[in-house]
Amino acid sequence: MRHNKKRGMKLGTDAAHTKAMKKSLVAALLANDRIKTLEPRAKAIRPDVDRVITWAKKGDLASRRLAIAKVGDKEIVREVFEKAAQGMWEGRNGGYTRIMKLGPRKGDAAEVVIIELVTEPVQPKKAATTVKKVEKVAEAAPEAEVEPEVSEPEAAEESAE
User: Fold this and answer.
1) What residue ranges in the chain does DSSP mark as E strands?
2) For 107-120, how does the pLDDT look when each residue is reduced to its tens digit (9 = 90+)?
3) Under DSSP, is residue 156 helix (H, G, I), strand (E, B) or coil?
4) What is the pTM of this model?
5) Confidence of residue 9 (pLDDT cuts 50, 70, 90)
6) Which of 1, 20, 26, 37 has the most crowded CB, counting CB atoms within 10 A?
7) Alpha-carbon distance 96 to 117, whole Å?
């Protein structure tokens, strides 16, 4: 039983208003690629947007129906599925949104942010390849003969003689 357990952030409203607000924000973000909103709202819709884009990458009928239920607009879902079919998020496993802070709002000091869809291609990581090269260089270097260390008093005696 889920006695008094809520799913996700409430955003200062009742459950029905929160659900409607998230649905309209997700639709606006997918339609415009970038929206300006408050930080808690942006953080609340981020998982929903990522889920819709993941469904779009999958591309089957069941995913399309789930996306229509989440967004509420067939035309917006069709556009997102077309973008995914063209390879807009190819090679990207999550992280389809970016949140950039703009600062506090003048009236009530609420944190205003821009949330946008990421369209840049994924850059492969290069750090893993440099570590392998360093190990290969260390293995390839021939081991030089190690000279025995001489303590300072012995070195002084040798130079005095």
Assistant:
1) 34-38, 97-104, 111-117
2) 999 999 999 999 88
3) helix
4) 0.71
5) confident
6) 26
7) 6
